[in-house]
Design goal:
The protein is of the alpha+beta class. It is 66% helix and 8% strand. It folds into 3 domains: 161 residues, Beta-Lactamase; 134 residues, no CATH class; 104 residues, Arc Repressor Mutant, subunit A. The protein is built from 20 helices and 5 strands. A hairpin with a 2-residue loop joins strand 4 and strand 5. The longest helix is centred in the middle third of the chain and has 29 residues. It is elongated.
């Protein structure tokens, strides 16, 4: 029976990729199976490692295997130190949820060998003094990679390996997204803890902001605001799964209404709503519930724009996210086209076909949606709100606002 990893990954392609990586960066790289055994090795093994293994009798494979499995949970590459205090980067390879092995880069140091590193390793492994001196002499065989370059090497290894097994990449991406969400929610909970507990009330302003971000397609900010809201619910309800489910039902109803108002087909939205509500009782952990709710926010937002071939998705995402970040400035079609890496004339045509509205119409919609939120929030002068959302004059703002909503800004505020 063949090696499971090579049944999922082309061996020659992987070997060539690692050889290029190792040659260009001067760092050894290897492929391991699920047990931590080396299948392929590129670059010279460090003389330091050879001596360390001989002195201690340790099997680094088990350390590498455990780090690889940790990387699956972290959702991507993982930087770790081996028993000799040398650094490595590992990328796990998975398929259908099964761990098949990993790609490992290292060992390397982030600074020149410090005697304290060897002293610590010697104490932990009861090494003789002559062995420590021999290792210190061999330390020059270990490549030194400054911390800033380590981050770049980590990113490069991720992008080289991410496409090895497509479904494995999807699982890692989901794990990474879930960890990032949990981190954001934890930050939100901590923020509310630091406030006066008695003064904290449900942040309706955050809820309005979420609806605005969903309607304008600003997915990064929509997810960030959602996680702030979830942090408040978990803080105020003591991590109650039932409380978050109740809030999820309310948010799903609000999102449905916003999506339909934004032009999404009613049948599609009702189907999304029903799918989520049917799934809700089976979600038995807070982490899973919060992640599925974040998925729903993304799907509701995407439902408001026509479905188009995948080849259009990347440039459209870049354009929409650029508009979401810069709508308050004097934004031009040329600016957005540059962000989407397209010729302005072609971008204008493609934008209209893809988004269902011209660039100018879409930009005005984003600005009006943000203005609606600011008008509902308080008593800021309308002229200040017009400037805050990117309109050069109050009169033009009022004209566009009425065309989009049927009301003047003053009438909308009531």
């Amino acid at each position: 029976m063949g090696e499971p990893l090579y049944e999922a990954v082309d061996r020659l392609r992987l070997r060539e990729m690692l050889a290029a990586f190792s040659s260009c960066l001067g760092v050894p790289a290897q492929v391991m199976d699920a047990e931590g055994r080396t299948l392929e090795h590129c670059g010279e093994e460090s003389g330091f490692c050879q001596r360390f293994h001989r002195c201690t009798g340790l099997d680094c494979g088990q350390t590498h295997r455990r780090a690889s499995q940790d990387a699956v949970q972290f959702g991507g590459t993982y930087i770790f130190a081996c028993p000799a205090n040398l650094n490595h980067i590992v990328f796990p390879v998975t398929r259908h949820g099964r761990f098949l092995g990993a790609v490992l880069a290292g060992p390397f140091l982030m600074d020149r060998m410090d005697s304290t590193l060897l002293t610590d390793a010697a104490a932990r492994h009861a090494m003789a003094l002559e062995d420590v001196m021999e290792l210190y002499d061999a330390a020059g065989t270990i490549p030194v990679v400054p911390p800033a370059r380590v981050r770049e090497m980590d990113t490069l290894l991720y992008y080289l390996c991410a496409g090895l097994v497509e479904e494995g990449h999807a699982i890692l991406r989901q794990n990474r997204d879930a960890l990032q969400q949990q981190s954001r929610i934890s930050e939100s909970i901590q923020m509310y803890k630091e406030q006066d507990a008695g003064a904290a009330s449900y942040p309706l302003e955050k809820e309005r902001e979420l609806m605005t971000k969903v309607k304008t397609g600003d997915l990064p900010q929509a997810k960030a605001v959602l996680n702030d809201l979830l942090g408040y619910v978990l803080f105020s309800e003591g991590n109650s799964l039932d409380a978050v489910k109740a809030r999820a039902v309310e948010l799903c109803a609000l999102l449905s209404r916003v999506a339909i108002e934004g032009g999404a087909p009613t049948d599609d939205i009702l189907r999304l709503n029903n799918q989520f509500l049917k799934r809700l009782p089976s979600l038995d952990s807070l982490d899973n519930l919060c992640y599925r709710l974040q998925e729903m926010v993304v799907r509701f937002s995407q439902s408001m724009f026509p479905v188009h071939p995948a080849k259009n998705r990347e440039w459209a995402t870049r354009a929409v996210e650029y508009i979401a970040r810069h709508y308050a400035s004097p934004l031009t079609l040329e600016d957005a086209a540059r962000a989407a890496h397209l010729n302005p004339a072609y971008f204008s045509t493609l934008f209209k076909q893809t988004m269902g509205s011209s660039f100018k119409e879409y930009l005005n919609m984003v600005r009006v949606e943000e203005a609606k939120r600011l008008l509902a929030r308080g008593t800021d002068p309308i002229v200040d709100i017009a400037a805050a959302v990117g309109f050069e004059s109050q009169s033009y703002f009022a004209k566009v606002f009425k065309r989009c909503t049927g009301l003047t800004p003053k009438e909308y505020r009531g």
